[in-house]
Write a structure and sequence with these properties.
Layout: H1 2-33, H2 39-56, H3 63-86, H4 96-103, H5 108-133, H6 138-164, H7 174-177, H8 179-196, H9 208-230, H10 232-266, H11 294-330, H12 348-370, H13 375-388, H14 399-409, H15 414-429, H16 436-449, H17 455-475
Helix pairs in contact: 1-2, 1-5, 1-6, 1-8, 2-3, 2-5, 3-5, 6-8, 13-15, 14-15, 15-16
Length: 476
């Protein structure tokens, strides 16, 4: 009974997704192309993506093999839909329409239409693969119901905007009518998950704060967007007036700034304004400010060439690293059991690393702009410093134990590390609290830890820790 309910639930939730996806596809294709694909073709492409994803998942295939498989499957779906739109009179297995598709001459607008169809089919394919990987739980189905309802609401607003503001009436009645089967299927799917799958009896428990926040943000966005549309003529006039004012200020300030720059670089000898006629063979815009000093010209050339070489090396190194990471990811194997293996999602570790990098960058900017006012903030950045140095703090490590670990690997920085740890101990357990002199000493210790002098040692420790962690995984 449970297997039957699971199959029925997958069928109903898939029909839910097709309802709101096809509504948007039909509306956009009718508005852009004047023609659209049928509901059956959309359901076929969506179902084919689900079947291909389920077949190719859990066999330990390489990532590049999965990508090639999905590209071939999506190409078949595109060919099926192009046949239904442009060549319905030919049998689908007849190769004549395929040769006709590649040999016929097309206008640029025809290529735009074909690219738009390719994008729509690609989005349908991605929706099918995402549906195949998504769990069919109560909270997930409720979330998909909210997304579908929002999609229909936004579609209604788009149609009203085109009709009222632009005078464009998109002849697409089926997209609006699909909301009724969507609501019916959603109610059935939610009921099945509550009764047959042990769902909770409350609506999204623990999401009260998120709901209030989303409601507030939605109300603010609606109010702001409505105000902008109502006040658009006034805002346009204000923008034109501001542009004229800025032009006038620029014409008044530019001579003053030019005089100041000339005074700074010419040592008090203000150059007279050049005559309207420039000597032939000379370009005043490219003339150096230090034409009279040969050593300044040489220094300028050296700096310019040095910056160009550094920029080229930086971009070459970045491109090489990206190519290496992409190739390593493409030729890695997927999980045999995606429910329990570590590499279930190959993109998730990169998302986490990017998020950690952005958080550390934001903390660094705040630390430079505002300074560190507590020892706990210094210990937080010290923990991040240790992680980037190949010594992450374990969940069971106390601050004192973590400091001993860092001192063992960086003996030259023992005094600075102990200063930060002692400041944290005094701040938490001290009766009198942390004094300003002690906090200043801890901040100076942190600045010493960040010195580029210790970067080679930190890089070496990071590489060693990576090697040891991989050896430990292989031994397991």
């Amino acid at each position: 009974m449970k297997v039957k309910n699971s199959a029925l639930l997958s069928l109903i939730t898939g029909a839910m997704e097709i309802c709101w996806i096809y509504s948007w596809v039909s509306f956009t294709m009718t508005a852009v192309l004047g023609n659209t694909i049928s509901l059956l073709e959309t359901a076929a492409a969506f179902s084919f993506a689900i079947v291909l994803t389920n077949v190719s998942t859990g066999h330990g295939w390489r990532v590049v093999t999965l990508i090639i498989t999905h590209i071939l499957g999506c190409s078949l779906a595109v060919a099926y839909i192009l046949h239904g739109i442009f060549y319905p009179s030919y049998p689908i297995f007849n190769t004549h329409w395929i040769s006709l598709f590649f040999t016929v001459a097309r206008e640029p607008m025809d290529w735009v239409h074909h690219i738009f169809i390719l994008i729509c089919v690609g989005l349908i394919w991605l929706a099918g693969t995402a549906f195949a990987k998504r769990r069919k739980t109560y909270s997930v189905i409720c979330a998909r119901f909210d997304i579908g309802l929002a999609a229909f609401f936004i579609l209604l607003l788009a149609k009203l905007t085109l009709r009222v503001k632009g005078g464009i009436n998109v002849d697409d009645s089926l997209s609006s009518a699909l909301i009724y089967p969507f609501l019916l299927l959603s109610i059935i799917a939610i009921g099945i998950t509550r009764v047959g799958h042990g769902g909770v009896r409350r609506f999204l428990p623990g999401r009260g704060g998120s709901g209030i926040l989303m409601s507030t943000v939605s109300v603010v966005i609606l109010i702001v967007s409505t105000s902008v549309f109502l006040l658009l003529p006034i805002l346009t006039q204000v923008a034109d007036t501001g542009q004229r004012v800025l032009k006038g200020l620029a014409l008044w300030i530019l001579p003053v700034v030019s005089s100041v720059v000339r005074f700074m670089f010419m040592g008090g000898q203000v150059r007279s304004d050049p005559s309207s006629g420039s000597p032939p063979g000379k370009d005043f815009g490219s003339e150096s400010l230090f034409a009279d000093s040969w050593w300044m010209e040489l220094l300028e050339v050296i700096l310019r060439k040095g910056i160009e070489i550094i920029a080229i090396m930086f971009f070459a190194f970045t491109i090489a690293i990206l190519i290496y990471l992409i190739m390593r990811w493409l030729f890695s194997r997927t999980a045999i059991n995606p429910d329990t293996a570590r590499n279930k999602n190959h993109f998730l570790p990169w998302y986490k690393r990017l998020w950690q990098f952005l958080r550390s960058l934001w903390k660094a900017v705040l630390g430079v702009a505002q300074g560190y006012k507590r020892a706990s903030e210094l210990f937080s950045v010290l923990t991040e410093w240790g992680r980037r140095s190949g010594l992450p703090r374990l969940m069971t490590d106390t601050p004192f134990e973590f400091g001993i670990k860092l001192c063992g690997q960086f003996p030259k920085l023992k005094m600075e590390i102990e200063t930060i740890i002692n400041a944290l101990t005094i701040e938490i357990y001290g009766k009198e609290g942390l004094k300003s002199e002690q906090l200043a000493s801890a901040v100076n210790a942190w600045y010493t830890l960040r010195s580029p002098v210790y970067w080679p040692r930190r890089l070496k420790m990071r590489i060693i820790s990576k090697i040891h962690s991989r050896q430990g995984i292989h031994n397991l």
